[in-house]
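Treating backbone geometry as a discrete language has practical consequences that deserve illustration. The sequence in question and its structure tokens are set out directly beneath this paragraph.
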Amino acid sequence: PILKNVCLCLFALVFLIAFALASSGDEKVYFINNTPIIPGNNSLYRYDLSTKKVSRISDTLNGLQAYLSSAVVCDGAFYGATSHAPISFGIGKVNLTTGESVAAGSVALYHAIACGPAGSNLLYGIASLPTASGLQFTVRHFNTQTFTDTQVAIIPTKKLFWKGSDAAISINAQLGEAWFADDVEGDGGRLLVIDMHNGTVKGDYLLSFLAGSAYGVILGAASGRGAVIEQRDDGFHWYGATIEGERAHLSHELHANWFFYAGVPPAISADRSTGCLASDSGSKTLQNLNIFSVTEGKVTESIPLGNLVQENYVSVAAVAFGP
């Protein structure tokens, strides 16, 4: 009876995860495998969460442009932030039907991107520009038809301490908002809430419940609700966070010493309930693709990428949910 109940519980968990993804339209995970060979090509893969099958969509992406950060699927195309630092930055696009790829340059390095409003042909992004006094963070709109980007606003950085983690920025396309966490020494950090339509800072909140650094954030389905990932000496800690009044409050704490690495941001499903991130598997040539619950901070499925990608080298960072 005990074994039967355990099996039933596991079946129910798998069913609920599959139902949630199907309801949001996010039944597949798209990821870029970056080549270590220059000149060479990167490849885009699609993994079906239902059938557990993988297919290669394109292997013609310019290997000089590494996909090491944020990615998204919009209107039948995969978009990813590209970098050939410090020479060039931009946005890469792959048509999911034809596999045709193209890349556009930008003066700014994108740290987070999201689909703009339906029919707008825009990506919303947060990117940085090098200046004599340090990095200047900006809100940008990237036109997917003309392949040009426009600076919408400069994010106030008078007290901004960014330690290089792109996971510290999270954009919710449905809300048109972004969370940007920084690390203020001795104060646990701050959380900026940014309007992605016009670039204004809607709120500036203390993360006083943190003992370490604010490594990452995930903006949830509702404004003022999400998760904050803290980095400590003993690993990463996962917090549910709620914005009320002038502070971001802790709603619950979970330990999540399991997958974050190199500041790579996770992909978040359309309903903001499920995340995905490629992690270090302890091997230079193998990685895991981790599916996790945003509300609980727990991995629900860990998929060895070495079993999916039939290439001699696996180097995955850019991941996106999509239909």
Observations:
- The longest helix spans residues 2-24.
- The chain has a mean pLDDT of 82.
